[in-house]
Automatic annotation (TrEMBL), chains A, B, C, D:
GO terms for molecular function: lyase activity. Belongs to the threonine aldolase family. Its cofactor is pyridoxal 5'-phosphate. It comes from Sphingobium lactosutens DS20. One of its GO terms (biological process) is amino acid metabolic process. This is Amino acid lyase. Homotetramer. Pfam families: Beta_elim_lyase. The keyword Lyase applies. Residues 2-276 form the Aromatic amino acid beta-eliminating lyase/threonine aldolase domain. Keywords: Lyase, Pyridoxal phosphate. The keyword Lyase applies.
């Protein structure tokens, strides 16, 4: 909020302002390598623009069958890529494995009748709150490189993943073969705006193309400084990591009480908890909000603003069940 | 060939010629209902244009996971529909079942985040040579109607299906709820050109739109009479059924010899046969051509020009194995 | 800013919040008719989504050759409509005339080879700061209705147009045949977010489709309440008109001094002024910012925050030239 | 016809047959340079696929405002390029001039708000039957190269142009900077099928991409040998030039009689002739067919099958007017 208020004065329009101009440097410092960084209003747009830069319309994107880009973006990747094909794969905890990817690639005949895979997209932390380690990402990065595929990471919860890993952001991205990263901000306390980052030798060309897509899709806002200011406020003094650490810590407190109700290990800020309909109703009656997750389960998400005190009531309620 | 030669004289261009003008009436007679009929050069284009008329870009098309539109058209449906989502389902013999479709529909949340299904596409005969009966199609037609979905039939081997069923073409199409049919011609002896047919009260509007897509995709040939003439020659004296009957009969002869090597019942003109690599090599050494079908299997296709005499050598070779 | 700060508390995500829920009613009251209203982050996106709802991919959109959608949106309408054709027309002051539109329509053959016009898009106030009167819009609305075309108004400066006209917003929109309006907010003091409004019997269907496009293009932000709150703050106590009146009044003060340097009458908040390179340099040396407009001219834009005092220095500088 | 009949026997499907395999070599010989050649069913598709290989969706294609791709293809280039922008220019006889192209390029700001030109498309012979000389093409080729644009030639009447020029096909194409050529066959006596040719160092990559588009747009026919056989029959013994010479000669005979009714010089096989409504009716009453060309004019097209004897009646009728 303070950052936004500070940006509330005239400057050059679109991304010609002082805040936007600092993004490349700020993210390059954070990632210890030259980075091309664009603010983009939503994760859906950032993911889709990344894929449009990595995959032609006649190509395919390998992703987990429960990935956000597959399930919850109303086909946005198909819109931005002009009809590229999502190639969903199963996998425990919404993680892709190198073997599954290799098998999928092997099944594609190299003729013009079949869609060739051109990119892999993974989500870190995953849709089930699991975190890919640098080693796991690197294993997928090797497959990608061996087959000439681009590697995209949907980092809507990237901060939570890095907070969990305790590694350098570089370790789990470009050092592990990631070409493009959606660096989440909104789920981590931001108002509007994520960052789309490109790494490596093709970063400049891809970012130039991404700027075209950003404009062409109506995402180049005339007062982009408000978005850039948020991103800078997040990363320039490690606010993004502090927020994520807080959310992760809150999740751990709840996880302890949830015990063997947990359907997945808790590594980031999401808990998937077995709850009967009655139990869910009991919790809701006490004022707790969460999403049902199919039958007999619920998804609990903690956030940056929570600490031991604020989650204590829910922890107690879980314990009482 | 004779039909093409007969069409080899000047007439109005595109679809303004005398042959094209007769298509609606000829197909209406064959299907016992007013039909809108367009010649379209390839099955890929006919299928994709049909889907573009049934499904918006933000919609989804339910199809079998081994359907030609899913596997072998390089994403053509995504191109013509501007990025609609294929929703592949498993099913024995490449057939969709009403239950599988209903389950898939139930899993889609009715919000803007998820792609809404808008059409179902089935292949008759299927990619494994099985034939949907009128009752089976009608059961899917009921699901489609109940959920406001369009129903498309890829009839690349429609003639073989009807020859097997011995029913009226109407019984397995519009009477069973089919809105659009790709009426195959090339696999049944034609040179270039299939027919795209629309049935029912929206036929006229959809055909008008299909004519736009045909032009816009470069499929409105200036000498379309050559395509129309082939289609008329096929249907005006039941050549299409005679050809299909011949191909089916030839397949039955082979099926008898293939015995329990068969992986699927033989209903149309395709046989999927278990063959070791040595057996396949043996057959090929004798001059027989066929596709490998993964490991340890082969796909044999008979055609309209074959009869007992011409398939006898292969039948004998199969018996010898 | 206050509105945004007020929205800075948790609520349902996307457009499920209390602010978004009030948009339809608030705009319906302002326009004296049932209105479907969506917040959309940028004018480019709002214009393009409007056109995607009015024009199929194989259709055309008649617009002025200097319209923003033609010149300055990197082909965004082509992206959202999947390749619809812009049909640019000349016209004094960036205004379309009914005669020019009729002539263009007459030149289109009604066959599948030519792109059929399906929509008209006008900008009010125009790119040269001129204002279409209700009568002028109605004349275009009549042409649109007679030919079955949708009518879209790009109202990036709609507030300035209404402030100039002194009419009801309804008079210059739906009463004059407008089907969809981009209601500008950012150029009138907002931070991020315009409104896309649909009028008339098809409003509900078009808005439903627009919601799909908004999601699919990555414009359905998870914290949409910040946009909705801005729009409500603008219209619920006539702030939008007060801002526009201020900007228009400031422009009039400058217009008086610009005298016969003016290239167009000043009706809204833009002045197009003949300036030699030396004169432009002189003004810039005094700290005034503006866009060059080709050779020997400049574009000056006043805004909501200006009054007699704040523009006095520039007025004086113009007088001194 | 003979070529088609000769192709009427089984071979590998799609473009795996013996005829298709010879295309590259045959066209390479004709053009005295390594050429990548694809058969494509229609000129609309060949033009559009060429442009899709030369221009990204966010780019623009400079073309004459009366070019076939602008006027008569129902927006097909927009479909295949996913919404690239056609940039129409005026020009005498439907010819582009280097100056006009340079002026257009100069008017484009190099920012993301404006669509960058990425290709030039010219038609030879033009829509008014005029022929670009090698020098004229080379002048445009120089502009293209200087600005990093691809150069496409729509050669629906390429044979007529070359017949008129008497030059090597190479002189007016790749030696003059042309990257992609639609080599017309149908207007020159073929049944279905044109050739799309790529020249130069990027030919291989562009052709690979074009093969994807051909499949994805439903233009990879399963019996492609019929198209390849026609193309080979056309070029392997100079039939294409003999046909074009015949058509051009017939046009000259008519041109002599048309005298100062001619609106454009007659260089290929089209005549644009001033005719009153009565004169047109008189000719039609005598059995002659032609297109009206706006008010008071007609377009006469001669073809490969005509000679002095067959055009004599029309020549006489023109003389009598």
């Amino acid at each position: 909020m303070a950052a936004i208020a500070a940006a509330d004065r005239a400057d050059h329009g679109y991304d010609g302002d002082a805040w936007s101009a600092r993004l490349d440097d700020a993210f390059s410092a954070l990632f210890e390598t030259p980075v091309q960084a664009l603010w983009i209003a939503s994760g859906t747009a950032a993911n889709s623009i990344a894929l449009a830069c990595l995959c032609p319309a006649y190509g395919g994107v390998i992703a987990h069958e429960e990935a956000h880009i597959v399930v919850d973006e109303c086909g946005a990747p198909g819109f931005f890529t002009h009809g590229a094909t999502l190639m969903p794969l199963p996998g425990v905890g919404a993680k892709l494995t190198p073997d599954a990817v290799r098998d999928r690639l092997k099944a594609i005949r190299p003729d013009v009748h079949q869609v060739p895979a051109r990119a892999i997209s993974i989500t870190n932390a995953t849709e089930y709150g699991l975190v890919y380690t640098p080693q796991e990402v690197a294993a997928l990065g090797d497959v990608a490189k061996a087959h000439g595929l681009g590697l995209h990471m949907d980092g809507a919860r990237f901060a939570n993943a890095v907070a969990h890993l305790g590694c350098a952001p570089a370790d789990v991205t470009w050092r592990a073969g990631v070409d493009a990263l959606t660096f989440g901000c909104v789920k981590n306390g931001g108002m509007i705006g994520e960052a789309l980052l490109f790494f490596g030798p093709q970063a400049r060309d891809r970012a130039a193309e991404a700027r075209r897509w950003r404009k062409r899709s109506g995402h180049l806002f005339s007062k982009g400084r408000y978005l850039a200011a948020q991103l800078l406020a997040m990363i320039e003094d490690d606010l993004w990591l502090r927020n994520a650490n807080a959310a992760n810590a809150a999740a751990q407190i709840l996880a302890k009480e949830a015990g063997n109700r947990l359907m997945h290990p808790v590594e980031a800020n999401e808990l998937f908890v077995r709850l009967t309909a009655e139990e869910a109703a009991t919790l809701r009656a006490q004022g707790f909000g969460f999403h049902d997750w199919g039958h007999g389960a619920a998804r609990l998400v903690t956030n940056w603003s929570q600490d031991e005190a604020t989650v204590a009531p829910l922890a107690a309620a879980l314990a009482r069940l």
